[in-house]
Queue: 2 jobs
Job 1
Amino acid sequence: MTYLGMESLLRRANCQYSAAEIQGVACGLLAVDVNADIEKWLGQVFPERDPQNALQQDFSHELTRYYQNLRMQLQDSNLGFHLLLPEDDEALEDRVDAMQEWAQGFLLGIALAGLQDFKNLPEDSKELLDDFIEISKVAQFSMDDKEESEDAYLHIVEYLRMGVLLIAEELQPSTSSATIH
């Protein structure tokens, strides 16, 4: 699903979160527990979900498929996971805002999954989460030099992407990553 497709879906469902933030929440949940209950995530998307609302039920089914696909992407040894952010032709300010919302969503997701204290985490994960907190802060980025800002944005997005994969691997090591000799 594209960023605009998810945004459209969420607007029609009267969701208060952006597409980036919603994916961030799902990634946070799944990074802590790959088997995290989708109801925690859907509860964030639709805090006042009405089982009798046919439109919400349709959206829930579509989001369930998205969540399951995201779960597979996070476990993909080919690193097929990507952040759900606006396309490169969107204004840089909008992309930076979405990236910050994504990081905020990720932090919310790990909290929803029960990870409240970083001090017992592996050192790399602890450092990454501290960086994610800094990235999520509003008004943190200067965009005076357009080319330099674009380059910095791309590096930060890749840092977030790889960071999520590392955190997920450190918190729940996959059995398929073992080296066979």
Note: The longest helix spans residues 146-171.
Job 2
Amino acid sequence: MSNFYHIKDLSSNFEDYLKTIGDLEANNGQVRSKEIAKIMKVKPSSVTNALQVLREQKLITYEPYGPITMTSRGKRIWLIIHQKYKTVKGFLTEILEIDNETADKLACTIEHAISPQVTERILLLRQFLKDDNTCGADTIEKLHNFFIEQTKETEKEIGKEIPMFLLSVLKPGEKATIHKINGNSAIRQKFLDMGLSRGQEIIVERVAPLGDPIEITIRGYSLSLRKSEAELIIVR
């Protein structure tokens, strides 16, 4: 069981700086202030001020124009922040079926406000729901179907029934909104990671002569789908 400690005297802004430094150090080994400024989209002067505060709190070692390194205390706090982020994001994507981009933004916000007790309970609930021995077989699949059925009932009540089609039948230039994604949990998770989630608008850009592949635009970027994949996506 993970142990989530309280983080005292560190504002959410400085937690973001420490999280960025920790992520960069974990991936690249060496951290420079210009990299922090680029990732956080802030001015170099703002990074310098933040680094000075983090150094005063003995969370990093830092000299102007030199590399930045976390202290053992800084690494410990970064690990706590990172665990909270992963726990929240995992729950949002795997249990609540929130798309990857939205879940990332939410997790970055929630990690600052959530208490250690709630974080640990979320982690335990996630483990409980995914464990066939404790919660029963196919619980996640049943939860997914429950979401779909309840959404259908809600739409019927408010009169929002709109004709639905398979994404694979749309022609270039046509727009649609994702209503449902079929397939097993692994396939749905793959689509979520690609940004394909319920409520997202899709524009079909190109379709190969034999209908495979299909190029679409979603969230401002392009994706290429096999026809077999597009047949799992119901749009309206």
Note: The first helix runs from residue 12 to 28.
